[in-house]
Amino acid sequence: MEKLTHINENGEAIMVDVSGKAVTAREASAEGTIYVGAEILQLLQDDALPKGDVLAAARIAGIMACKKTSDIIPLCHPLPITKASVDFEILEEKAAIRAVCTVKTEGKTGVEMEALTGVSAALLTIYDMCKAVSKEMVIGDVHLVRKSGGKSGDFFFGREGTRL
Where residue 133 sits, what CATH number does that domain have? Predict the structure, then answer.
């Protein structure tokens, strides 16, 4: 087993030293789904939810979360985010909403955690803004879809045989 990067020789948690790494273009995308049910989905499509434009608020929450990831995730490096976007797809047959968060930076460490944090915050915001109608929602399937840049190179979900 490889040495754990966030644990020192004494077994103590540490922040990884990235000072010797090269600055490279890095990008990551993560996705997740919230199963909201037919009633909420119809209200969303009719722009009739009591708290207003749910997806606009969720998009902003996701982008803000990307920028604050190092404040939320212990030992995560603060990064100069050069792009953060959150997009949604309505999955009518599942009465669900799929969110995708994409983050870019030029830096010494990747933005996978930023993308995962962003998509999670977007999904949680949808829940928060729809819970007055029904609390029977399920958030799931949150995962890294792809990443590029850095020493470990490119990653595409499913290429390594991983399936949800």
Answer: 3.30.70.640
Domain that holds residue 95: 28-149
Beta bridge partners of 24: 107
Q: Are 119 and 100 in contact (CB under 8 A)?
A: yes
Residue 132 lies inside a defined structural domain of this protein:
yes
Model pTM?
A: 0.90
Residue 44 within any structural domain of the chain: yes
Q: What is the pLDDT along the chain (164 residues), one digit of tens a residue?
A: 456 677 777 878 877 778 878 889 999 999 999 999 999 999 999 999 999 999 999 999 999 999 999 999 988 999 999 999 999 999 999 999 999 999 999 989 889 999 999 999 999 999 999 999 999 999 999 999 999 998 888 999 987 665 54
Sign of CA dihedral 60, 85, 29, 32: positive
Considering its fold, how many domains does the chain have in total? 1
Residue 128 annotated to the active site? yes
Q: Which residue has tokens 């949680």?
A: 124
Which is catalytic among the residues 46, 47, 128, 141?
128
Q: At what angle do helices 112-130 and 38-45 cross, to 10 degrees?
A: 90
